[in-house]
Design goal:
The complex is a heterodimer. Chain A is mostly helical. Chain A has seven helices and no strands. Classes of the chains: A mainly alpha, B alpha/beta.
Chain lengths: 186, 511
């Protein structure tokens, strides 16, 4: 119980002003050792690209899967780079999981061989139709789950959709717009 | 100075589970001077281990042991699923205690009336609300209105709804009971990092420890309940965090492992005297498994920002549809709560689909309003929890199988509810609306139900097993019907009442 009271005083003693959302650790206030997660920056455990030399960025698999990722959950204002970055990181994470890598490789082959052209050269609506035909496959399910999870934890996506993330280290949202709605006409 | 009890001390009451039922009962008994040992399968987290990070917290506090069938969203941690709950605290209604008398026996349902009535539980609801600090009850202020609540209220008003409140939340609106007021941290389902939300971890458990009559044994998974030749239960066998088995003797045992584990423990505690498991001469253990209608979600892209991620996940409710109004085409009612205000990945997963139809909602995340709807779920004998014939867990015990299918009443109710929800957001000019029934699994009830007649249920009006007088059920598995309301307040009220009964029975040396 004492920890609770101390934390409450700690939070109330601070003035938490409105801040523009950033996801960089250095912008965090130093809240002292009792505050949970002082090193826990304002994002979930997202995966970031640090370019790995053994998975080249222009690998055709990444381009195909990147385009599939975009069609799974498309956000027009997101660059292609974000989607390929997600695939890049997925492949890094799967490096030692040969069975899953093979599923993805075979999936790319399936996409490329379903029509007479490479998948990346097809019109989007045809690409989507091909994806619909693969919906029940393990390949599709892995891609859907991985892309959705990684995309919606990505800071660039949070920025464009307006999700402001964790708030504990900022004292909650109580003074940062939790009840500021102004367009509801009575 | 924390009390510890000898394994051979058979004067203690063993409580299995430290959540809303077990944690509350254990504290209530300890306050009355009764010695209690509380067993919890999960570990004891501290505030410094709580982060605003759903994947990390799910890993730490979720129940991930293998189960077959319908999914569940429950916790393995000290405080049980009160770590994760959203703190919606509504009483059951009078008619929900007499569903058989009110609705009749629907085809393929196994409705019976509870052995108690609302009047019997009302004084305990009072105590539970004061214990938990339910906003808008007694002299406690209502909760602050979040943007999401304001949208829902305004839309509902336009449709002529009249019964809404931002209260009925077991989250401190002001400093109370040594715990701070809510700061809208908005990660309620990942553990309240400052303790505003009622959870047994930092309320019932420490209060019980202060009495000197209580020992909590975390990371202690009870796998078997022992009994003597007369049939009375005598103790529990549990595995510690290294898998070593121990046996604790007990004078009485109260099972509060949440519905799945309670059922499993009763069934697994078979013996020559009890070949079908404990308290199961009626054959009802595991049956009548209820999960509520829903959860139903409705999301609307509104004309302006809502930023619902900035507020508590659920705040308040709308009650106009909770009554039994059979001209709507179904029995029982449903409650509409502003909710679903989760981080983006949770919402995207909820849609269970892909493509622009989903990503357009995510693109408009800042303009989303959301509601969650739950309703009365008729008990059915074929909705049940049983033991898998072959597959066993790490202790060599059968894994549970959860069989559940929606009753036609659920389908009719869901359609009505989604239509109403869509109309609410339409009235405010939502440009797109999504509605759907999700898998749910955080409300689990009915598999050890209370009954007046011993051949229709597992326990009596005190939660005392018909077959075994010193064995009690203390979680949602004893619900005779689900009602529309979130179950936790009722679990707490029943636990407080059960503690009074156990104490009186022990004083008279009947138990």
């Amino acid at each position: 119980m004492q920890i609770t009271c101390f934390m409450e005083r700690l939070l109330l003693d601070r003035e938490f002003k409105m801040r523009r959302r950033t996801f960089i650790a250095s912008n965090l206030p130093a809240l002292g050792i009792l505050m949970p997660g002082t090193l826990h920056i304002s994002v979930f455990k997202s995966v970031y690209a640090a370019t790995q030399p053994d998975i080249p960025a222009d690998n055709p698999d990444i381009q195909v899967l990147g385009q599939m990722a975009r069609l799974l959950y498309s956000h027009p204002s997101l660059s292609d780079n974000t989607y390929t970055e997600i695939i890049h990181n997925l492949l890094i994470d799967l490096k030692n999981k040969t069975s899953k890598i093979n599923i993805l490789k075979n999936g790319v082959t399936a996409l490329n061989t379903s029509m007479s052209q490479d998948w990346n050269d097809l019109e989007e609506k045809i690409q989507i139709n091909i994806m619909k035909e693969l919906e029940d496959t393990p390949f599709f399910k892995i891609m859907q789950h991985e892309v959705r999870t990684r995309l919606y934890r990505h800071p660039a996506v949070w920025e464009i959709i307006g999700y402001e993330g964790p708030s504990l280290e900022y004292g909650g949202y109580i003074n940062r717009g939790f009840n500021d709605i102004d367009w509801l006409k009575k | 100075m924390v009390r510890t009890y000898n394994l051979n001390d058979d004067s203690v009451v063993a409580v299995i589970g430290s959540g809303a039922g077990g944690g509350t009962l254990a504290n209530e008994l300890a306050q009355k001077g009764i010695d209690v040992v509380c067993f919890e399968a999960g570990s004891r987290l501290s505030f410094t281990e709580i982060f605003n990070d759903p994947p990390v917290m799910n890993e730490k506090l979720g129940w991930h042991d293998k189960r077959y069938g319908a999914p569940t969203w429950l916790c393995k941690t000290v405080e049980g699923t009160t770590m994760r709950w959203s703190a919606a605290a509504h009483r059951l209604q009078a008619h929900e205690f007499i569903p058989r008398s009110t609705y009749g026996l629907l085809d393929n349902s196994s409705f019976i009336d509870w052995p108690i009535r609302l009047e019997d539980l009302a004084p305990y609801y009072d105590k539970a609300e004061l214990k938990m600090g339910v906003s808008g009850s007694h002299s406690i202020p209502v909760s602050a209105e979040t943007n999401n609540y304001k949208v829902l209220k305004e839309g509902a008003k336009r449709l002529g709804y009249q019964e809404y409140t931002s209260g009925h939340m077991a989250i401190n609106p002001v400093y109370r009971d040594g715990r701070p007021a809510c700061r809208q941290i908005a990660f309620c389902n990942e553990g309240c990092a400052i303790g505003s939300k009622w959870s047994t971890l930092y309320t019932e458990i420490p209060k019980a420890e202060l009495t000197g009559r209580f020992e909590l044994r975390p990371e202690s998974m009870v796998i078997y309940i022992t009994h003597d030749n007369s049939g009375k239960v005598t103790g529990v066998i549990y595995a510690d965090n290294e898998g070593v088995l121990h046996r604790q003797k007990a004078r009485a045992i109260c099972v509060a492992g949440n519905t799945i584990e309670t059922t499993r423990l009763l069934l697994n505690s078979q013996s020559n005297l009890y070949p079908d498991g404990l308290a199961n001469s009626s054959g009802h253990v595991g049956k009548h498994y209820m999960r509520h209608v829903g959860e139903i979600y409705v999301y609307g892209i509104m004309p302006g920002p809502v930023n619902f991620h900035r507020g508590a996940r659920i705040t308040g409710a709308i009650f106009d549809q909770q009554y039994h109004q059979p001209d709507r085409g179904f029995s029982g009612g449903y409650i509409i709560e502003p909710g679903g205000a989760n981080p983006p990945e949770t919402i995207a997963a909820r849609f269970n689909d892909w493509g622009r139809d989903v990503s357009v909602f995510m693109d408009n995340y800042s303009h989303l309003a959301g509601m969650l709807i739950i309703g009365e779920d008729p008990p059915q004998e074929n909705n049940k929890i049983t033991l898998h014939a072959e597959d066993k867990d790490q202790y060599g015990l059968p894994i549970p199988v959860l069989e559940y299918n929606n009753h036609p009443n659920n389908i009719a109710m869901s359609e009505h509810a989604m239509e109403q929800g869509r109309a609410i957001y339409s009235s405010l000019g939502a440009s797109r609306i999504w509605s759907g029934v999700t898998a749910g699994g955080c409300h689990n009830m009915g598999t050890a139900r209370m009954s007046t007649n011993r051949d229709q249920g597992v326990c009596n009006k005190w939660g005392q097993c018909h077959d075994i007088s010193n064995l009690f059920i203390t979680d949602g598995s004893l619900f005779t019907s689900s009602g529309a309301a979130n179950p936790t307040l009722t679990i707490v009220a029943l636990a407080i009442r059960q503690a009074d009964y156990i104490c009186e029975q022990m004083n008279q040396r009947i138990i």
